[in-house]
Amino acid sequence: MPTVKFEYGDETFEVTAEIGESVMMAAARNRVPGIDADCGGGCSCATCHVYAPDGAALPAPSDMEKDMLDFADALTDASRLSCQIVVTPSMDGVTYVIPKL
2Fe-2S ferredoxin-type domain spans which residues (predicted)? Predict the structure, then answer.
């Protein structure tokens, strides 16, 4: 199982993720701060906003994800909703940054 990292402020959290689950579920299951996941992964709240690393091989965000990102604070070109990112074996060691607001 891949290890996914989350940076939140000056802390880094490493979690074991299951292939096929969302990055949000891996974070929520491990109680990573800053990932509130209020909607439970339904792409309807933007409380799982992260910055994806440069060069991450992720599919383009869907129109629904783009619409929800409009509600996220501190939006950048790297912004993604972690509920929409599916864990793959190639994500081992990848670090997502959680905006600290």
Answer: 2-101
